[in-house]
């Protein structure tokens, strides 16, 4: 059964980063009442829900369910699904907080990953001047995998029970200035150019993280609302403790538009079916058939891999 493109897939979830697939349209869940639309219109000004409207509503006495909805709008819009509107939250987020009893069944981690993938694609355009998405996820991923790129003042902290891994990197942000920003840009460019295989932490989450989170091996499409992005763990096998080999050709979009400008950037993939998610065995990587465990160096790769990598990563 085809998935409604306006919906976030609903699944039985156990961990944070996992794929999104399959949820039939539910009119009771997504059908807005006249009063609700009128309430939302107070916040909407053409580009999304004004955060100040949600904050004002939180300060007012009202039904607990609506207060929870306002809080979740701010939480999701300012952390997981951040855009470049500064003071607004995408109206699509409201569709996913209308039923508090359903929140535990949404794959928020996978949705944030799909959203971030799309925003990184947009940020790669020649005229891009910024990046959106869950940058906390991206920043902490960089700190975990590239120790030499961590700020010298920032040391990992011990996590308390139940805390998210991002808490290891809590620190005070330095003051920004044009001169300092230019210096930091030059510094990080040099640091990236100086990276070696030995300076990368290939498996910061353990030698076999896929044994703990089976959804790590899922291989197909991730989705958040109308955003659909491919997810392929065979392109980062060394992070799973396996020798990097040549992966299959990536899943190609049916329609693609990647102009130099960030405006008009769009990708369209084939329809997503809930059976893909439900049948994890048919839509996941079987590592032992695909590659071999790393025996010596954590950056090991197959003989034919590096030639292919150079051809695709150094075209000019």
Automatic annotation (TrEMBL):
One of its GO terms (biological process) is meristem maintenance. InterPro entries: AminoTfrase-like_pln_mobile, MAIN-like. Residues 60-308 form the Aminotransferase-like plant mobile domain. Coiled coil: none annotated. This is Aminotransferase-like plant mobile domain-containing protein. The lineage of its organism: Eukaryota, Viridiplantae, Streptophyta, Embryophyta, Tracheophyta.
């Amino acid at each position: 059964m085809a998935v409604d493109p306006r919906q976030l897939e609903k699944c039985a979830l156990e961990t944070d980063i996992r794929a999104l697939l399959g949820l039939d349209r539910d009119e009771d869940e997504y059908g807005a009442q006249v009063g609700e639309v009128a309430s939302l219109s107070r916040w909407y000004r053409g580009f999304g829900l004004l955060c100040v409207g949600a904050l004002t509503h939180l300060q007012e006495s009202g039904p607990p369910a609506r207060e929870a909805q306002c809080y979740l709008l701010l939480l999701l819009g300012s952390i997981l699904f951040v855009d470049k509107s500064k003071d607004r939250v995408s109206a699509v987020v409201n569709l996913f907080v209308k039923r508090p009893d359903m929140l535990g069944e949404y794959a928020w981690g996978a949705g944030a990953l799909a959203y971030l993938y799309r925003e990184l694609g947009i940020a790669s355009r020649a005229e891009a001047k910024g990046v959106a998405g869950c940058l906390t996820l991206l920043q902490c991923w960089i700190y975990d995998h590239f120790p030499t790129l961590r700020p010298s003042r920032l040391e990992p902290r011990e996590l308390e029970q139940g805390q998210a891994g991002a808490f290891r990197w809590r620190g005070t942000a330095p003051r920004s200035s044009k001169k300092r920003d230019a210096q930091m840009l030059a510094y990080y460019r040099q640091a990236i150019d100086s990276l070696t295989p030995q300076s990368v932490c290939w498996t910061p989450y353990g030698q076999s993280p896929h044994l703990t989170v089976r959804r790590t091996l899922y291989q197909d499409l991730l989705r958040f609302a109308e955003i659909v992005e491919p997810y392929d763990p065979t392109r980062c096998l060394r992070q799973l403790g396996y020798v990097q080999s040549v992966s299959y050709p990536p899943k190609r979009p049916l329609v693609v538009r990647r102009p130099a400008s960030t405006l008009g950037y769009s990708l369209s993939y084939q329809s997503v079916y809930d059976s893909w998610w439900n049948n994890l065995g048919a839509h996941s990587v079987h590592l032992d058939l695909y590659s071999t465990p790393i025996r010596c160096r954590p950056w090991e790769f197959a003989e034919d891999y590096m030639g292919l990598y150079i051809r695709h990563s150094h075209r000019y």
